[in-house]
Amino acid sequence: MSSQHKLLNVKGKLIVSSIIALTWLFLSIYIAYPWYIHLSSMIGAIPAGLCIIGLALIPGLSNAFLVASMVFDDRPIFDPPDVYPPITILIAAYNEENCIGDTINAIAKQHYPNKITIYVGDDGSIDKTREIVKEKYHQYYDKLHIQIFTAGTNQGKGNILNHILKHVETEYTITIDADTYLFKDALKNIVTNIIKGPPNTAAVAGSVLSRNSRKNWLTKVQEWDYYHGIAVVKRIQSLYQGTLVAQGAFSIYQTKVLKKLGGWDNTVGEDIVLTWNIRKLGYRVSYAEEAVSFTNVPETYKAFFKQRERWSRGLIEAFKKHPGVIFRRSLSTGFVWLNLTFPFNDTIFMFVFVPGLIAAIFFHCYLVVGLMTLILLPMAVLMNWMIFLKHTKTFRRLGLKVRKNWIGFILYIFFYQIIMTPASLSGYVKEFINFKKSWGTK
User: Fold this and answer.
1) How large is the average pLDDT for residues 58-66?
2) pLDDT at 153
3) Cys-Cys link to 148, which of 120, 131, 156, 294 (CB 3.0-4.6 A)?
4) Are 135 and 101 in contact (CB under 8 A)?
5) Quick one: how far is CA 389 from the chain centroid?
6) Statement: residue 420 has pLDDT above 50
7) Would you tell me which CATH number, out of the four given (3.30.70.260, 3.90.550.10, 3.40.50.1110, 2.60.40.1120), belongs to the domain 87-306?
8) Where are the beta strands (DSSP E) in 123-200?
9) Domain extents for the chain?
10) pLDDT over 90 percentage in the chain
11) Could you tell me the CA-to-CA distances from 162 to 46, 125, 168, 266 in Å, in that order?
């Protein structure tokens, strides 16, 4: 860690990063003022202001804050604890015959120096999930304690997790998805992080990356989303002591806190709702970038659409259950406010930017997409370059290699938002109207 960074505590880093971001915002407002005058003469002052806020000001502010924060993000590398405690891993499964065997194999390969108990909650599967788990029980009888609990009918992910949580006796509980593949020392690293982190740390999110990224163009794009978008947000949120989602795909929790809360709500976004429940009690939720796992990302747009729809519904669920979170005083409240703007930003992007882009390309009409929108590009390029350098350093330390995936990167930069936004908007609308809910493994 550089000496300059040591002079700043976390609050100081937040203040400096915020000043830099606000400076960028004021500069953007100054540059965009002629654009606003022109646009307001065409569509009115209020619509023009909303368009510019959603298209340029909020994205620019958030990107500037992330870039400034990454400069100060020198996270500690914890020494291993003297003793690793026994742990329990919970896996909620629903028709997972194609992946759960590999998931358990990966757990068995972990060199974890204490007892590992695996509780699989089979939520009414109609395939060979139970048979495969039983095979793994016999295969790893001398290494893992595996037990399967079966629900007669599909009850929902939150309910099945709560059912198997009742049987947990270890101090720490880990959740992974049925298609999550743990990289070497993932269990050691995530346990180290929760033990050696601040005393009030009740949960730690692991790093989840794409496993099947070479399958097709869609998985190639998602590799960069997991590597760049999702990871960097968790990283910066952790810097300010407030990771907003300890994802069910790979996270660790204090068991006593889980049981105090009554486990998971039976919601689409059960992991984000649980995380906000934990934060409401005053606990810290962190992020362990060196605890790496790989998951199978959706390979078809239909599956991708459903996944991102669930994620956006989960965000609205969290706000509905915790409306007071926007008034809670903490270092990470700014991220909550930013999440609150997502429905607005996505709406502006879909119904203003995309039509404006079409108008600019095919009809040479630059009313929406023109010179003024280019002020976002330098910050976006700088942010992506810094993220790449940060993560490459981490990968090298862990013995991982960054794949050459330039096609995926180009598609991610220029087209990913276009294919993701319709799913997000659908999720927002469905949650606002309380549309019927169902769960998957993501």
Assistant:
1) 89
2) 75
3) 120
4) yes
5) 20
6) yes
7) 3.90.550.10
8) 145-150, 172-176, 180-182
9) 87-306
10) 57
11) 48, 17, 10, 9
